[in-house]
């Protein structure tokens, strides 16, 4: 649906030339939630702004639904942009307009008649969960509610694509989650393609199907979210993956337990894309003559399945322990003895 071919963006500054985006190739499929992650200055904002030509590429092509965005006339581009909604970190609402009038704004620009506009605005208010707040001004809303207005406004003209520029970065974790849930809901209900940029792996983990990692203007790694979690190739990707999986000092933080009575062997189980987490420990306790203590764990669900690690202490006869490990492996869960092997 969206194809970027050898996209490059150079900025001329007083201090010389900056390469913000460096020969990026990307394909984004219809209906998917595609995330771009990178640290500040990696080129994410510039990249996403080139999808709707808010920023013109220095070279390369952006194709959306087989349309070469760079070759459209001013009028054609205005029309094409109605098919691409966008939301922003700082919401970009009109402060002197009510919620209702903010949402109505793109409909006015598109020349939608008043009665139709009114009906559409009420539909959108309901869709984003802002019932009863239509008459409020942005200053009277919480950050999460402001972003809901931003989303409703972006969806007003029934776009096929929604671009999200750090849409949850100004929000607290709980509000972030509620906005992410809303994006998934919209993606599923409307079949909307969502492209988002973020510096938080949590956002990628929670809602994206595929991810691209950016560093110094380049896409250094991309793929299905679970595959990238499972086998991050680049150092940069490993750093991001760590944000949502194993705390860096897990092994260290468990060391004080090693050798304590009743802990026995310490195993690290790594789950990728399966949901055996639910029953594995119960099965082991029921089937084998062992005691198991859960020491620490972090299992996160992604749009493609679960991922995470669980650390357990396990005690029993040697042969029983061996059977437990064989059982775990049979369930396609990775297992490593990190103490007492
Ligand atoms: N209008 C501009 N003029 C000059 N340089 C720019 C301009 N916009 C971006 N840059 C430079 O391009 C590079 C990439 O910036 P960009 O904002 O795309 O990165 P980012 O990953 O979105 O980071 P952030 O999240 O901090 O915005 C940076 O070095 C930045 O200074």
From TrEMBL:
<dbReference type="InterPro" id="IPR003439">
    <property type="entry name" value="ABC_transporter-like_ATP-bd"/>
</dbReference>
<keyword id="KW-0547">Nucleotide-binding</keyword>
<dbReference type="Pfam" id="PF00005">
    <property type="entry name" value="ABC_tran"/>
</dbReference>
<dbReference type="GO" id="GO:0005524">
    <property type="term" value="F:ATP binding"/>
</dbReference>
<dbReference type="InterPro" id="IPR027417">
    <property type="entry name" value="P-loop_NTPase"/>
</dbReference>
<dbReference type="InterPro" id="IPR050086">
    <property type="entry name" value="MetN_ABC_transporter-like"/>
</dbReference>
<keyword id="KW-1003">Cell membrane</keyword>
<feature type="domain" description="ABC transporter">
    <location>
        <begin position="2"/>
        <end position="241"/>
    </location>
</feature>
<dbReference type="InterPro" id="IPR041701">
    <property type="entry name" value="MetN_ABC"/>
</dbReference>
<dbReference type="InterPro" id="IPR045865">
    <property type="entry name" value="ACT-like_dom_sf"/>
</dbReference>
<dbReference type="Pfam" id="PF09383">
    <property type="entry name" value="NIL"/>
</dbReference>
<dbReference type="InterPro" id="IPR018449">
    <property type="entry name" value="NIL_domain"/>
</dbReference>
<keyword id="KW-1278">Translocase</keyword>
<keyword id="KW-0813">Transport</keyword>
<protein>
    <submittedName>
        <fullName>Methionine ABC transporter ATP-binding protein</fullName>
    </submittedName>
</protein>
<keyword id="KW-0067">ATP-binding</keyword>
<keyword id="KW-0472">Membrane</keyword>
<keyword id="KW-0029">Amino-acid transport</keyword>
<dbReference type="GO" id="GO:0016887">
    <property type="term" value="F:ATP hydrolysis activity"/>
</dbReference>
<dbReference type="GO" id="GO:0006865">
    <property type="term" value="P:amino acid transport"/>
</dbReference>
<dbReference type="InterPro" id="IPR003593">
    <property type="entry name" value="AAA+_ATPase"/>
</dbReference>
<dbReference type="InterPro" id="IPR017871">
    <property type="entry name" value="ABC_transporter-like_CS"/>
</dbReference>
């Amino acid at each position: 649906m969206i194809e970027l071919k050898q996209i490059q963006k150079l900025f001329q500054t007083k201090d010389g030339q900056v390469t913000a985006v460096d020969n990026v190739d990307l394909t984004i499929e219809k209906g998917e939630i595609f995330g771009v992650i990178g640290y500040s200055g990696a080129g994410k904002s510039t990249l996403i702004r080139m999808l709707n030509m808010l920023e013109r590429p220095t070279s390369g092509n952006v194709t959306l639904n087989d349309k070469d965005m760079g070759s459209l006339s001013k009028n054609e581009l205005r029309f094409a942009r109605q098919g691409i909604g966008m939301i922003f970190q700082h919401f970009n609402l009109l402060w002197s307009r009510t919620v209702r009038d903010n949402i109505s704004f793109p409909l006015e620009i598109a020349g939608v008649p008043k009665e139709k506009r009114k009906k559409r605005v009420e539909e959108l208010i309901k869709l984003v969960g802002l019932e009863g707040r239509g008459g409020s001004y942005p200053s009277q809303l919480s950050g999460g509610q402001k972003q809901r207005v931003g989303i409703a406004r972006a969806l007003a003209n029934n776009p096929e694509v929604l671009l999200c520029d750090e849409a949850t970065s100004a929000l607290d974790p709980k509000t972030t989650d509620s906005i992410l849930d809303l994006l998934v809901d919209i993606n599923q209900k409307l079949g909307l393609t969502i492209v988002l940029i973020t510096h938080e792996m949590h956002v990628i983990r929670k809602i994206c199907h595929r991810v691209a990692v950016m560093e110094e203007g380049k896409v250094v790694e991309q793929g299905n979210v679970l595959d990238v979690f499972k086998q991050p190739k680049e150092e940069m990707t490993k750093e991001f993956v760590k944000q949502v999986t194993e705390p860096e000092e897990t092994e260290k933080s468990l060391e004080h337990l090693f050798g304590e009575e009743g802990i026995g062997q310490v195993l690290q189980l790594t789950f990728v894309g399966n949901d055996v987490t639910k029953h594995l420990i119960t099965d082991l306790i029921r089937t084998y003559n062992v005691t198991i203590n859960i020491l620490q764990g972090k299992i996160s669900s992604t749009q493609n399945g679960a991922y995470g690690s669980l650390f357990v202490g396990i005690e029993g006869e040697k042969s029983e322990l061996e059977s437990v490990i064989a059982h775990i492996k049979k369930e396609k869960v990775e297992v490593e003895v990190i103490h007492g092997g």
